[in-house]
């Protein structure tokens, strides 16, 4: 077992070295360290708490199964966000192709009425003021994801390039366009940021 005093518990070194000696504890530490942030990130894609829970679970199962393929070309955090972004995009593609019948839609709507969305409420309260989050969510996914990763997850353009598998120059111009589109939405919606 790896000594937690030698490495800080949330460091890549501790998490990766602990994988070899105690994979179960290591994945629990990885989930404790990154779980809530990854879940909030997934929610920005899916906008549905039940789907977010499913995909979050799938992301950490994939991390557990593929941790041996992690080469260290990026930080562990960036690698996990890359998995999450790809799984969200796959989920959205599959979900669009899968027709929902009326009964399923009504059941989901009723279920949503009876539950509070802790993830959405916490995320909105902790990261945005007066409607900004809603405006971000109105952006197309390619703009929304770069804003979330850059401003809310504190990833650099280089790290975002790794996560989204896009050129850095493409992402820089996409970030500029995303800011411009967000400004237009804010001005159109009359939101005053304090």
Could you characterize what this model shows?
With 194 residues, the chain is an all-alpha fold. The chain has 2 domains: 1-116, Orthogonal Bundle (Rna Polymerase Sigma Factor, Chain: A), CATH 1.10.1740.10; 128-194, Orthogonal Bundle (Arc Repressor Mutant, subunit A). 75% of the residues lie in helices and 0% in strands. The chain has 10 helices and no strands. It is globular and about 55 Å long. Residues 1-10 and 97-107 have low confidence and may be disordered.
SSE layout:
Layout: H1 12-21, H2 23-46, H3 49-66, H4 76-97, H5 102-113, H6 118-127, H7 132-138, H8 141-152, H9 157-164, H10 168-189
Helix pairs in contact: 1-2, 2-3, 2-4, 3-4, 4-9, 7-10, 8-10
């Amino acid at each position: 077992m790896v000594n937690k005093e030698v490495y800080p518990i949330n460091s890549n070194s501790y998490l990766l070295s602990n994988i070899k000696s105690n994979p179960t504890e290591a994945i629990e530490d990885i989930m404790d360290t990154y779980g809530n942030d990854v879940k909030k990130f997934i929610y920005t894609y899916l906008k549905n708490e039940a789907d977010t829970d499913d995909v979050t679970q799938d992301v950490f199962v994939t991390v557990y199964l593929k941790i041996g393929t992690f080469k260290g070309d990026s930080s562990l955090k960036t690698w996990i966000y890359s998995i999450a972004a790809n799984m969200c995009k796959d989920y959205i593609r599959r979900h669009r192709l899968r027709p929902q019948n009326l009964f399923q839609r009504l059941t989901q709507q009723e279920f949503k009425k009876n539950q509070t969305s802790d993830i959405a409420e916490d995320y909105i309260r902790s990261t945005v003021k007066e409607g900004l989050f809603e405006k971000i969510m109105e952006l197309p996914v390619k703009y929304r994801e770069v804003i979330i990763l850059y401003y809310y997850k504190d990833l650099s353009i280089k790290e975002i390039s790794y996560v989204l598998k896009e050129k850095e120059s493409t992402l820089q111009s996409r970030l500029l366009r995303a800011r411009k589109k967000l400004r237009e939405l804010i001005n159109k919606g009359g939101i005053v940021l304090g």
